[in-house]
Amino acid sequence: MPGSRPRTALALALLVTGAVAVGGATTHAPARPAHAAAPAVATRRAATAKQLPPGPGRELVERGCLACHSAMLITQQRKDSTGWEKTVQQMEKWGGGARPEERATLMDYLRRHFAAGAK
Amino acid sequence: MRRRDFLTTVARAGAASAALAALPAWAQRIAAPAGATDLIERNDWPEHWETTVAALGRSWLTPNARFFVRSHFPVPAVDVAAWRLEVTGLVHRPLRLTLHELRAFAAVERAHTLECAGNGRARFALPRTSGTQWDLGAVGNARWGGVRLASVLERAGVKPEAKHVWFEAADHAPLPTVPPFLRSIPIDRAMDDVVLADRMNGAPLPKLHGAPLRAIVPGWFGMASAKWVTRVRLESAPSDNHFMVKGYRYAYPGEDAAQAAPVDEMKIKSIITRPLDGARLPHGVLRVEGFAWGGRAGVKQVELSDDAGRSWRPAALHGEPDGTGWRAWMAAVDVRTPGAVTLMARATDAAGAVQPVEARANAGGYGNNSIHRVTVHAG
Questions:
Q1: What is the structure's pLDDT at A18?
Q2: Domain coverage including residue A23
Q3: For chain B, which end, N or C, has fewer CB atoms within 10 Å of the first or last residue's CB respectively?
Q4: Is residue A66 domain-resident?
Q5: Shortest CB distance from B175 goes to which of A45, A82, A94?
Q6: What Cα–Cα distance (Å) separates residue B143 from each residue in B60, B105, B365?
């Protein structure tokens, strides 16, 4: 199963690129006008990735979600358990998500931090 | 009526287009370049930016630099010199057109309001509205210039069995296992008023908005107006893409998205752009302004309430309809005593559809056309 999932390597490659470029970038993402000189995408993505709360499962989000999604999209979700279940199932069909043995950890992380009522 | 307060100074961008210059005086004005706080970044990559209500209220046409942005995938790199628009599938004469050849078709330019289907998603009270948490500003009004899709299809010769037009585009997900964003529209829509646009408010179409070419499907939510279009395919059936079959469906709690009604025509809606929610104002006569838009039926009227919806009075609509562009409206409210006043705006379309006090929440958070209310404090 792991061999059929190239996403992990790609996600890591993107993250490493971002981490190298980020330097001292801010962790906040304020309103940004369209015409402003936007920082490099990798820098911006690495900066917003820092918004993911620490804890078990964070690394799985970085590996399984950030190849295609910004951390900003994840941190603004307030889904119930069924909502996250559906989302992760869909992403697994498309080559994202987590390996079977890591799935429970990923789901716990998403439910803990990005559910209705979560801080 | 002090329109100069409603619409700010004449923009240089307006002079770039004779068609823009031909607009009525009140609508010619495009506000000054976007300020640093005119856009709210909801997602950094791909870009999901919404316009603040204050910025929307400055002009009837929303300047390109502060027009909301919603992309499913990152902006693709397009080599314009090598770019071709292909017209394939159920046609008698497949085409492969350069931009130059495309521009030889009769030009059209009309105003059309684009609204993201998820605009207002953050205002739905439901634990499972998946996606970007848009507030009020994933909407904008622009003059879109280009050619009629129908002109191109007539040149290609549509076969009788062609019932749907698929828009293939240059954008794709970072992972090859993710399906593309491939929307289709019925042939009767394609042969009506759909535009293949390469200009926006008199300027070349910006990359973020689909350059070199995007579709504009007037009156439908934004997802139908595919960006970065490279191929128009005539098919007998609608697209079976994920973003047609499962995405963009009004799935109410307990329903299966695949069986639910598709999101297409925009719903009648209005927004109060002045005064802003929470504003502190002197009591007396208060000018209230905003915009109203919807599907192709057109806006019939806008009404305003200052007593929590117990009574309504008509607002005045500016000018005449232009395409499916939104209608600017204005009303005066006499606030005689200091205190909090809640204003509500309610639009009705020509087919009789009226904005609900609370739109019904659905899992995707689509089509929230709940009546907009703002509370101001009169001193």
A1: 31
A2: 1-30
A3: C
A4: yes
A5: A94
A6: 10, 18, 28
Q: Are A6 and A48 in a shared domain?
A: no
**Helix (DSSP H) and strand (DSSP E) numbers for chain A:** 6, 0
Tell me the pTM: 0.87
Average pLDDT, chain A: 72
CB atoms within 10 A of CB B233: 19
- Banded pLDDT at B115 (limits 50, 70, 90): very high
Task: List B331's β-bridge partners, or say none.
Answer: B288
Contact B179 A48 (CB under 8 A): no
Q: Is the bond into A30 cis (omega within 30 degrees of 0)?
A: no
For B20, counting Cβ atoms within 10 Å of its Cβ (0-12 exposed, 13-18 middle, 19+ buried), the class is buried
Structural domains in chain A (count): 2
> How many CB atoms neighbour CB A15 within 10 A?
19
A119 falls within a domain: no
The verdict on A25 and A43 lying in the same domain is no
**Does A60 share its domain with A99?**
yes
Query: Searching chain A, which residue's CA lies closest to the CA of residue B121?
Result: A77
Supply B226's token pair. Answer: 């595919």
Determine how β-strand B195-200 pairs with β-strand B203-204.
antiparallel
Confidence of residue B8 (pLDDT cuts 50, 70, 90): very low
> In which band, very low, low, confident or very high, does the pLDDT at B127 lie, cut at 50, 70 and 90?
low
> Which residue type, as a one-letter code, is found at position B26?
W
Classify strands B313-314 and B299-305 as parallel, antiparallel or unpaired.
antiparallel
Q: What is the DSSP letter of B94?
A: -
Q: Is the same domain home to A97 and A51? A: yes
Comparing CA positions, the residue from B47, B13, B134, B147 lying closest to residue A70 is B47
Q: At CA B214, angle to CA A34 and CA A67, rounded to 5? A: 60
The DSSP secondary structure of B99-133, one letter per residue, reads HHHHTTSPEEEEEEEEE-TTTTGGGS--TT--S--
- Determine the pLDDT at residue B4: 37
Cross-chain residue pair A33–B36, CB shorter than 8 Å: yes
- Rounded to two decimals, the ipTM of the complex is 0.82
For residues A24 and A40, membership in a common domain is answered with: no
| Any domain includes A42 | yes
- B173 vs A73: CB contact, 8 Å cut-off? no
**In this model, does residue A13 exceed pLDDT 90?**
no
Whether residues A25 and A52 share a domain: the answer is no
Residues A14, A56 within the same domain? no
Task: For residues A48 and A88, state if they share a domain.
Answer: yes
CA-wise closest residue to B6 among B23, B30, B24 = B30
| A76·B42 Cβ contact <8 A | yes
pLDDT computed for residue B253 by the predictor: 85
In a domain, A84, yes or no: yes
| Set of chain B residues whose Cβ sits within 8 Å of the Cβ of A32 | 39, 41, 49
